Amino acid sequence: MSYLALGCIGFVASAHVSPAIAAQATPARLEGEPRPAATRLEGVTVTDAAVQDGYLAEELASPKITAPVVDTPRIVNVVTEKVLEDTASFSFEDALRTVPGITLGAGEGGTANADIPLIRGVDATGDVFIDGVRDIGSQAREIFAIERIEVFKGPSSAFGGRGAAAGAINIVTKQAREGNFGTATATAGTDDLLRLSVDGNAQLADRLAVRLAAVYHDADTPGRDAVQNERWGVAPSLTWGLGSPTTATLGYYHYETDGIPDYGIPLTSREQLPGGERVPADVDYDNFYGLLARDFQKTKVDSATFSFEHVLGNGWVLSDVARYSRARNNYIVTNPDDSAGNVANSVVWRAVKSRNSTSDSFANNLNLAGVLDTGSIAHSLSLGVEFGVADAVNRPYAVDTGNRTCPEASFEDNNCTSLADPDPSDPWTGSIAPGARQRASASDVSIYAFDTITVLPQLLVNAGIRYTAFDTDAKGTSRGVAYDVEANSDFLSYQGGVVFKPSELASLYFSYANAKTPPGTTIGEGSVNINGSNAFYEPQTTENWEVGGKAQIFNGALLLSAAAFQVDRDNIIDDDPITGAVPVADKARLRGFELGASGRAGPVSIFAGYTFVDSELRDGSDNDGNSLPNTPRNNLAVTGSWQVSPRFEVGGGVYHASKRYADPANLISADGYWRFDANASYELTDSLGIRVNVQNIGDERYIKKLRNPHFGIPSDGRQALVSLIARY
Questions:
Q1: Model pTM score
Q2: Where in the numbering of this chain does the TonB-dependent receptor plug domain appear (predicted)?
Q3: Do strands 181-189 and 296-313 pair parallel, antiparallel, or not at all (unpaired)?
């Protein structure tokens, strides 16, 4: 890490570009115009322009953040609304492809078929937040109501409470605000894509505004036979008190999907390849092994959010966000299984994974933030209390899928099919019945404090601490064994950093942060749910050390960042009160570095990053020294655009990940890939524009999701899109 630390120092030192170089770039502001000072209220700025400018975000939305991005001592990637638009990112997964160091996980038996982001190989399924409040419930999110996405990398329990071992992903939503504006977009594309979206804001009175975002989307999946998705959603909001010391916003979100889920293609049979290695089967990546007569997925999300903010004066702000949400995820999906050597015989068993879950949750975050001087030392403080409750019920289906060894009878009822030429329209006459009911509930209460301390103008100290009490219980049947268990834990999580500022727009930092992940953290969603086998585990501890530097150049228009990190995962301990055994179940270490750039240099806008991760298991087993699952060593994401003229813009993206494994033994793997996108837009008039996107230009067919032990899900193929955008 010492070499990269020296590199970070040199990087920041070189950020003071010469006048000749600076003159080549068109600054984000008029030449000679001073950079406006940010009015800091609860860790964010008052003006929208200071928060977000094209591909650059200078401030973060959460009231828990007590410094601008350049002075925050950790890597934070912000996917702005402009990035979402230029890349034609229509889903949460689409948007995350633009962020380096993120891979996508696939659902299985105990993990829902839904959004499963992994940050540097660590699961962040339960660490997605909306406007700073945890978003509970398995779902596949849309972007129609999203203003931007903030990705905090590295353990973040001080920020997020329980879990957050990978980091935290905060979604900032579209809410009613001052002004009158609107956008309507109609998109048509190959593979029968049709998408209509609107986003309109109207100021009804001096202090009252309403906003409505809505979408309808229907499309087949490029390069995948029979896979399709239809979805729609609305998100109205109303804000009262605009321009006054007290504002209040009431918002509602409704979103539904109906489609054919996809678990991709099977892996090679066990022992089919030398050494027990397994890779995606050598088949046409268009092949779909599911059954249209049986497979389906329907999801529904309803949530209501109330937030208020009151300016107390003297730099202090009191705010609160309260949200009730209900998420439904209901599906039967074909798992192209090879648990009995079928693939080696050119056949596939159409196994089934299913879910019929409903998650109800309520969360509230009360925060007090402001500035305070103690003698010559200045403080930017954030103090708060969080409370959350959740209840999840799942009753998966009992589906008759025949014999996994694929005897002749299994072909007659189409529970088995050809490896080379599966037919999704095969008839199916098997039975479906409700399965065993599973229930889990959880509650947590946290208090926290964050402070950015200005010791000297050139020296800042960042500190944060949180106390969390987390209780969970569950009842059901797992693998035929009934359980009725509960777990209670309370713990401290904290973070700290020292920031040296060689100039106003540059920083060098060293930081530490940890996370605590108790059983039940991903209630209703993932593999960390409480059950009979893990009820007595102590919270897993994850620690992050990071050294880095950031600098805004070209008059603050372009943010550069570089950081080295080390993440240690350990302390999954089985503290069984009956046996007294306390074995360590898992240890791992990740070391690496990340380079990033976001913003504008002259006519060129860029949002780019490269992450290198060297991961290894350190648990003393036969897998000791192996790479962590779903952790490619190299990951590159570059999104850029060039403003050719005031009305014409061209751009594109380059995305790469190296080889990765799906299992601790490193026997199941998928090759790396390169993907290239392109886009162009032209403003026909001041209020009407057109944009063309070509996704995956080279039609690269790589595995985007790899799952141990059964399957891999291929990427989407090439797709062309044309969008007509009307604005007022």
A1: 0.90
A2: 69-168
A3: unpaired
